[in-house]
Amino acid sequence: MPRRPMITPRMIMVITTITTTIITAITITAVITIITITTTNIATTTTITTITPMLMTTSEPAPADAAGGMNADEAAALYRLMTWLSPSFPVGAFSYSSGIEWAVEAGDISDAASLRGWLAAMLGDGSGFCDAVFLAQAHRAATARDHATLREIAELAAAFVPSRERQLETTTQGRAFIEIARSAWASEGLDDMVAACDGAILYPIAVGLVSATHGLPVAPAMHAFLHAVVSNWISAGARLVPLGQTDSQRILAALEADVAATAKRALTASLDDLGSATFRADLASLRHETQYTRLFRS
């Protein structure tokens, strides 16, 4: 019977070493294969030693400016526009309906849909567009310190008001806007601009003057102004129809594109582009003067 070979301790050590070497080689080969596949898929030749720091870098928070933060001037501009053109700024806008009260009584406005259509017309083809143009023109004249042009713009704006009540509405708000803004936020040159107008100052002219003397850009000032005007119209309509808060916000959301389009047109318009095609709204502001029951001053 053949004799079995003896396995010595030395032979066990040799076998273990060979096995470990093979396993290590297989592991390294697999890792290299995975790295090769990964780098091929992302179309890069970056080695593993440079990939690791990159991943660590992307996990760190970005600086404030890179994340879209505002500088001090931008923050101050936003703060002032939000304050000046918010419903809480005391210019008395809640007392006026711009003729909407008569339109509700006459049956022209009876629900959320008809209110939305009426306001869209006023905004794009009526007083909304005209006021936006006057704001832009006044802002530019005030920025250039062109007193003569500013006076002409203020006079033309006053001539465009279709009724006595609308004249009362816009001049009262304009005067209040300037007085309160001047009292809380003093600005160099505002008194000279007000004197240059030489007469009653309409609300859009007042917003243009104040924002210009504070160095605020015309585009955000105009968007904030139109938002404030539309919001006040909706507030008046909601009380008169009446409408709920949800319907009011739906109308405001539906008019977002109209506000943007009107602002865009007004920013590039000249005084020669002024004009209104909302005869029914102008008639409403005229007839409101003799309306039997009234909650609003216009």
Describe this structure in words.
The chain has 298 residues and is an all-alpha fold. The protein has two domains: 50 residues, no CATH class; 219 residues, Urease accessory protein UreF, CATH 1.10.4190. Helices cover 68% and strands 0% of the residues. It has 14 helices and no strands. Helix 5 runs antiparallel to helix 11 and helix 7 packs across helix 9.
For the residues shown, what is the average pLDDT? 84
What is the count of DSSP helices, taking H or I runs of 4+ residues? 14
> What count of structural domains?
2
- Mind telling me the C-alpha Rg? 35 Å
CATH architectural grouping of the largest domain: Orthogonal Bundle
Number of strands: 0
Structural class, from helix and strand content?
mainly alpha
Helix content bin: 55-70%
Give the termini distance in whole angstroms.
125 Å
Order of helices and strands: HHHHHHHHHHHHHH
The residue ranges in which pLDDT falls below 50 over 5 or more consecutive positions are: 1-5, 7-64
Highest CATH level, the class of the largest domain: Mainly Alpha
